[in-house]
Design brief:
By secondary structure, this protein is an alpha+beta fold. The chain contains two helices and four strands.
């Protein structure tokens, strides 16, 4: 038995989920009236979910519950304190600059009007 690979045809890329978020945590420093940083507030705490190809995720919740913060953390516009955001098998939390900009071309947030 032999195996032949044609270099002209791309090898299909496989990954478990299109997007996977694991134990995402986003914190903000709280400033006191004097302007000094005080305690921290966890805006998102331990969030995990998976999206398969062809699926759409709608996030619903009260004002201030962390919906927009979660979306910005997935896009890495707001860097999470901990957790992983894996898009097409690549951990976005480890990407920087040009590599991150390239991946963002394939992600979109649609805010409610």
């Amino acid at each position: 038995m032999s195996l032949s690979v044609d270099a002209k045809q791309p090898t299909p890329v496989t990954y478990e989920h299109l997007l996977e978020v694991r134990d995402l945590v986003v914190e903000f420093a709280v400033r006191e009236r004097s302007g000094v940083k005080g305690a921290k507030v966890q805006a998102v705490s331990g969030l995990s979910f998976e999206i398969e190809p062809g699926e759409t995720l709608g996030v619903v919740g009260e004002t201030g519950c962390g919906k927009s913060t979660m979306a910005r953390a997935v896009m890495q516009a707001e860097r999470p304190k901990s957790g992983q955001v894996i898009f097409e098998g690549q951990d976005l939390t480890k990407l920087r600059n040009k590599d991150l900009q390239e991946v963002r071309k394939h992600l979109q947030i649609i805010f409610q009007d």
